[in-house]
Amino acid sequence: MRKVLKLFTVYAKLYLKMVIQHKLGIVFFTLGKLARFLFLFFMIYLVFSKTNLVKGYSFNQMIIFYLTFNVVDTTAQLLFREVYRFRPQVVSGSFDLILLKPHHPFLRILVGGVDFLDLILLIPYILILIYFIIQLPNISLLLIAGYLLLVANSLIIATAFHIAVLALAILTTEVDHAIMVYRDLTSLGRFPMEIYREPIRAVFTFVIPVGIMMSFPPKALLNLLSPASYLLSLFASSLLLTLSLKLWNLALKKYQSWGG
Amino acid sequence: MKKYLAVLTVSFKEYFVYRINFILWRFRVVLNIIIPLFLWSAVLDRNPVIGDYDRTQFVSYLIYGNLIGTFVFGTRTFDISSDINDGKIINTLLKPVSFFNCHFAKLINLFFAVFELYLIVWFFKLQLIPPNNPILFLPIFLNSVLISYFINLTLSFLGFWTTEVWPIRFVFMVLLSFVAGNYFPLDIIPQPIYKLIMVTPFPYMFYLPAKILISHENPLLPTTSGYAGQSIGQLILFSYIWLFASYFLARLVWRKGIKSFSFWGR
C-alpha cells in the first residue's frame, strides 16, 4: 500500500510539472470553468426570480443539488483526468509500456494524472456548499452523515463509469469521446430528477444511475430519502463497480498490442 | 462550387466511418437540449408566463434556437489550430481551393438536427408555434452562422503563434453557451445585463434569429415592443457590424499568421 501511495504521489507530481508548463492553459481553463459555474448559478437565480418553488424545491435546496453535482463531478475530474488521454495511448500502442510496468495499470491510466487545476475550484465549491447546508432548517448530524456516505457512494459510481470508459477504449477504437458522453449524462444531475418527465426520469435514475449518483445525496440531506433508497444506492454502486471491473478484465484479454 | 460540394460529400462520409462515435455524438446533442427544456417547463408548470413568453413560445424558442445552434456550433474549424501546429495545414494550402470556403463547406449538421429535434417534439408532445418572419429571419440566420464561423476561424488562427488554442476556445465556448441565449431568451434577464450582452457578438448567433422566428408581431413595424426596448433595426445593424468586424478580423489574423508560418519536412 505504501508503494502504491508513493507511486501515486510521484505520478501526481510529474503531472503537476506538466500542467505548469502551460501557464496560459491554467488561466483560461480556470476562468472558463469558473464562468460556467457562475452562469449556471445565475440561471438558477433567474429561475427562482420567476417562481418560488420548482417541483417542490426552494432556491437554497436547488443550489444544494447544483453544488453537490459540482463537488462530485469536480472530484471525479480531479482524480480521473488521465482517463481523458487513454484512447490515444491504445491507438498509438504506448499502452504496452504501461502494461509492462510492475504496478497495476490503473495507477497510471486511472489516477495517474491528478488535476490540481480542479482543486482550485473544488475548495470554494465545498465552502459555498457548507454555507448553504448551514442555512437549512432541521439539519442534523445524522442527515449530514447520510449525505457524506452517499457522496462517497457517488464517487464509487463515478469510478465505475471511468473504468468502463477505459475498457471501452480498448474494446472499440470507434468511440473517441465516451468520456464526454459520461459528462453529458451526469450533467443531467445538476438539477433534481423530478424536473424531467417520464420515462427520462426513470431511465436516468435506474438504468443509467445519474439520479442515484447526483440527486440521492442532497435528498438524503433534505431528509427526503427512504432507508430502501440508501440500500438501493449502495447496491447500485457495488454492482456497477463489479461490472466495470469485469468489463476491464474482458477488455484486457481482448487487447492486442501493436508489437512495439 | 463543384469543389466545395466534393468537400461537403467527403466530410459527410468521414462522419460515417466511425458509426458508433457518430451516434454517440448526436446523442450528446440531444442531451444538451433536455436540461433547459425541462428546467423551464418545470417553472412554466407553476408560472404560465415568463417575461413576454408563454409555454408554447418559450419551448418554441428553445427548439428553434437549438436548430439554429447546430449550424452556429457546427463548424469544423476546431481542427485548424492543431493542423497549423503539426504542419498538416500545408496540405490544404497546396490545394486549389479557398481556405475560408473549404472549411465553410463542412457545415452539415442540420440534416441530423432536424430529425433529432422532431423526435423530441413528437416524443414529449411539445407544442410549437409555426415559424414567423421568414424573410427577415433568413439574412439574420446567415449572419449568425457567418459571425460564428469567422470568430471560430480567428481563434483557430491563433495556432500560428501558440499551441495553447484549446483553453482560449474553451472560454469562448462557455461564453457562447450561456451568453448567446441557448438556455433561455435573453430578454427575460434584468435590463442592464441584457443591454450589456447585446453589445457583444454572442446574441446575434443564437438569440436574435430564434427570437425573430417566434415573434408574433411584425418586427419591422415601429410599434413592436418585443425586443426589450431595443428596435429591431438597431439589432440588425449590430448583427451586420459584428459580421463585418469578425470577417475583417479573421482576414487580418489569417494574413498575419500565414506570413509568420513556417514548417519543416513537407
TrEMBL record, chain A:
Q: Which UniProt keywords apply?
A: Membrane, Transmembrane, Transmembrane helix
> Which Pfam families has this protein been placed in?
ABC2_membrane_6
Say if the entry is tagged with keyword Zinc. no
The transmembrane segments are 24-47, 59-80, 109-134, 140-171, 200-216, 228-248
Keyword Transmembrane on entry: yes
Q: Which PANTHER family match?
A: INTEGRAL MEMBRANE TRANSPORT PROTEIN, SLR0610 PROTEIN-RELATED
Protein name per Swiss-Prot or TrEMBL: ABC transporter permease
Q: What is the lineage of its organism?
A: Bacteria, Candidatus Roizmaniibacteriota
